[in-house]
Amino acid sequence: WGLMRTNPRPTQASIGFYYPDDYPPYLGTQVNARNGSGGLKHWIKSLLDTKAQAIPELSPGRMLEVGCASGNYLHKMAGQGWQVKGIEFSPQAAASARANGYEVHTGSLESVDLGASELDLITGWMVLEHLHEPLKGLEKLHAWAKPGAYLALSVPNAASLEFKLFQSRWFALQLPNHLYHFTPETLTKLLKQAGWEVESVHHQRVLSSLFSSLGYLLQERGWHRLERWVVGRPSDKVRLYQLLYPFAWLAAIFGQTGRMTVWAKKPD
């Protein structure tokens, strides 16, 4: 029914070779005790906080993060009163999260068994596209959730203008790590098949994949100086994202940004 897959793809036995210890998502989620800075910088950061934008206000309960990396989001939610636990594929990243006092199970969603968990909230930020069997993964999460629990999943949007423009050069394809490439329609169908009710699809107001994709294109054309300017240093990129936020906001209204978050519920 239109779900795009990577083919050929790594096996479950070999996929770990594509996730070295310095895989960027592991390094970018270290617990940061200074998350609460105020003023203009904090306001700008809140505009770009895709996780906060997607999750409504909920009373704290039991939460699971799938793909928690080194535990930064667990730390944030624990600070808001949630009882948190995580699942992490990388032993090193999982150990880092456990060193900060969090319950983290090492392994893939397919391999971990939490038993009767009765969870109130499950999150997975850019995780589902990495699974060999996403439907079974969603069914497993459904079994762990108590009736009325919520699920927040963020994935690249393969129906976006970014993908249409860049095709094989789209940064969010992330081959061969990303095994599936979802659109709002295919992800909604998959969630319904697993027993979840989709309440909303939130198109993230971010353009990070667009600039990285443009960098790929310029590099391929041999325009290395321009490519370095477009991709730039991390601090330059943050300033550029901030300047272009109005465009990202407009693109999100029309569902054309490269990332989306689906908010779903287990029926009562």
UniProtKB/TrEMBL annotation:
InterPro entries reported for this sequence: SAM-dependent_MTases_sf (IPR029063)
Gene3D superfamilies on file: Vaccinia Virus protein VP39 (3.40.50.150)
GO molecular function: methyltransferase activity
SUPFAM superfamilies: S-adenosyl-L-methionine-dependent methyltransferases
UniProt keyword annotation of Isomerase present: no
Keyword Transferase: yes
GO-annotated biological processes: methylation
CDD domains: AdoMet_MTases
Record's keyword terms, sorted: Methyltransferase, Transferase
Coiled-coil annotated spans: none
Official protein name in the record: Class I SAM-dependent methyltransferase
Organism for this UniProt entry: Candidatus Thiodiazotropha taylori
